[in-house]
User: Fold these one by one.
Assistant:
Number 1:
Amino acid sequence: MNKRAVAVPMLAAAVLALGGCGTSSDKASSDHSPGSTGGSGPVLKLATKGKVGKVLVDSSGKTVYFYDLDKAGETTSACVGPCVPLWPSVSAPANPTLGPGVSGTLGTVKDANGGSQLTLNGHPLYTYSLDKDAEDAYGPGYDHIWWVVDARGAKVTTMGGSSGSTSSPGSPSPSSTGGGGGYNY
């Protein structure tokens, strides 16, 4: 009798655990391709982000960034080691698309984990882990090497939606989110 009393709760726990695995697995597969839209919309689109202006976002609305240490045309991302969890790559879906008003050529490179990372005009794309909500854009100017991206696929180094400038952002206030050099626009 004691064996049965122990076996039933263990069986119930095993069934619940297996059910949870299915849910985790489903979430994990969607996390591996945040840009995947299943044909329901563009992978890269425009959004207005506070003082940053109109910039590219992924299909979930997260701000998209360029990394100055990446060189256009390279076959791998330069973001490795401690960079990877702070600046997750934008995963490349099978059929990436651009939203209205967005121009450029989409492609892929290998990210630090060996996955397929989306590129725009040959430049790898990232999100910023401290951008928790869709309206967040805390990464522009981070260490003077991370920049938001405009509708033409150019990095934005000045605030208010201007692009192509190589100057640093004008007198930004340090981000209260920490992270060593990020700016909160």
Number 2:
Amino acid sequence: MLRKTQTVNENQRLLVFKNQELIKILNAGKHTLWDIKNELNFTTFDINELFVSLPNVERLYRNSEVLKTQIEHWKLDNDQVGILYVNDQLKGIVAPSEHLYLWKDTGEIRLDKVSIKNQIAIENRVFNLIMRAGANSASRLIRSENTVATKPIADLSVPKDHVGLLYIDGKLAEQLPPGNYGFWQLSNKVELKNFDCRTQILEVSGQEILSKDRVSLRINLSASIQIKDAQIAASSVDKLDEYIYKTLQLALREAVGTKSLDDILIDKLYINETVKELVTTQLSSIGIELKSVGVKDIILPGEMKAILNQVVEAQKAAEANVIKRREETSATRSLHNTAKVMENNPTLMRLKELEALEKVADRIDSLTVYGGLDGLMNGVVKLT
């Protein structure tokens, strides 16, 4: 055919190539072109897609003044991130070192370049805008095909009553107070470790320990701790909770293993005081304050518990027997003293006789008296 007719919609652009060389770009409308030698071919683009996906676009743009009238080009350095806006709407995040080729007729295009060479923290206003637009995702990251897809921003949060340690490429960068933060992570590895600064309770439970006299005890220990310096704690040990647990466990074993069962039961505060003395300085050196420590339970084996119960029962029985003998002795001494007093006092003796007669009379229904009142008094009751 000598003539070729092409229809271009309003949202399209038609690239015309002659012998694989770009010669013109056609806008919306119906176009007729002469092609006597059948040398023309065409490529249609939807400019609503924004990005020019033309093969060899970089070379074509550099060599074609025609293409430059239709396409906008941006280049980012390897320490820059781009925030792309179209008609003041955020469209995505551009990775470092990227080339952007965009259709100009898509709308008003703006690319804000952000240097991440020395500062990867994101301004709160920009961070909130990106998060509201849902642009912090691998699918919204504008990148070359050979670039690993990842979220452009590390969305970090430090809870209330915590402190956060920020690490950039494995090195401690800064300590963060509670709040929400955003950091560029396209060229850096960003990590956050949170530490709870409130007083925490740590349980060391079910410890089977032999006392000095080889009695097996099961002991439950409770300790309250608080992080005073998160940076020292993080740099000193890897697994903080595990380290504190092991430290308390070893101190508990040392305290119990050097005392006999009787000593432990007599001095109930010995274990608490000894464990605290052993671990306070050690924990303080890694930024941890030991506020209190205490034994919750001391559990004896079944046979040992039965033996101790028998010992306690025997001790109590002996104590009761001593008290009983003491009271009997006291009663006998009192009777002896009373007898001595009555021996030299006839009137008191007679009163005791009458008291005895009254007790006897309470126990009988009737009484026959011979010899008058003197017979009753002298014959029925007579104390000697």
Number 3:
Amino acid sequence: MNWKQLKIASLDEITAWAETQPWCRAMTDCAQDAEWHSEGDVWTHTKMVCEQLTQLEEWPELSAHDRTVLVFTALFHDAAKPLTSRVDPDTGRITSPNHAVKGEHLVRGVLRDLGCDLETREQIARLVRYHGRPAFLLERTEPTHEVVRLSWLVENRLLYLFALADTRGRSTESMTRPEENLNYWKLLSEESACYDKQYSFAYAHARFLFFRQREPNLHYVPHEEFSCQVTVMVGLPGSGKDTWLSRNRSDLPVVALDDIRGELNVDPTDNQGQVVQLARERCREHLRAGTSFAFNATNTMKQTRGRWIDLCADYNARIELIYVEPLFKDLLKQNKSRQNPVPEQVIKKLAAKCELPTWAEGHTLILSNGE
């Protein structure tokens, strides 16, 4: 089945399809800690969560899109437990550290292969990534900051509804306290006016600083006057970043790592120190002059692009993040037509590790399918 078929399929049809997939068979063989999951293996819990979704009081009122998002969030929320589960040699307890983070990458890859549209895929992937957060709200130093942050990464309403189903979709009896925590998540989100929408900051720059500050002030309203705007391109090799720039920001000078490699005759597999050094200096030249420009590189890892964002923020630049991703088959085809194509296996490895940009990183975010 492909995404077009799956998004209109019944829950029984979806679970039947899932049971033919290797990631699902791995869940069937993956035990869980009995104190939290006395129902047994991960797939048993997953099916219970899917069933609990349909029993939610709010379920009949949800749009078809929201139902699809929640069902596939349920399907994949613990799909990475087989990759992360381990038994503590001292206590015998089973833990699955970072299964939500790995689950985000797993579901992104599966949905990409199925042909899921970019926006829906990322909505599901981020819900998988953050699905466990509501239950631990009271452990946060600033609970209000938590719901505000998450409102810019997921929709708190869908996160709350999924968390309810996740809590109820298990056989363990002593789960009343976590559900109370979930209700507090909903209440606090509603009080902060970010339950079914993003929290409304005074300016984009106020949000930008909120996410960057170690001890953020939710009500701080900074002066919003920028020296220039930097368009930071993000995307796999062959995704069409150059094409996007030529169509949408053709007036901007461009600092591109590929161009600098060509100038210096440095292969992508060689040491990139000289390339990065020259790129940083060219960025600084634009920033010092207050000239808006585009920075074009793969930038698919958050930590890597964060260094460039930090550089631009130090010069008080407005940061515009553009992520470009066409259908994967088209991306591979476009890569082959490049003057210096990247090996297909390398692209697939980069795709598996790709960390898409979020609203937490810049003033503006555009996710483009390359059209």
Number 4:
Amino acid sequence: MKQTVTIHCIVEKAHLASTMKSGSLDVLATPQMIAWMEQAACLCLDLEEGQTSVGIAMNVSHDAPSPLGAEITIQATLTEQKGRILQYDVVAYQGQTCIGKGKHTRCIVNSEKFLAKVYQ
């Protein structure tokens, strides 16, 4: 497993609070920032065939707005693993400005068993 993964994303119209209905302004939506944080956390993992991870907790602040077209850098750092439970520090930057930060928890699951429970 990789300890830290960094991804770069561009704020597009689909990522705006006004488009996602999480607010009325044309700025990066908090749910999109969180989705990118989860994406980076997933990329830290090198799982066995048939395994995946699911997000089970997210505690973040969204501290500064970002406009359409902004480049956002997201970093997830795996800080602890206890069995199937993974803890991450996640942070988002626009340039040198931290726009969001927090903690994220994921759980490693068997994909087939997980979906069987969902659709029984």
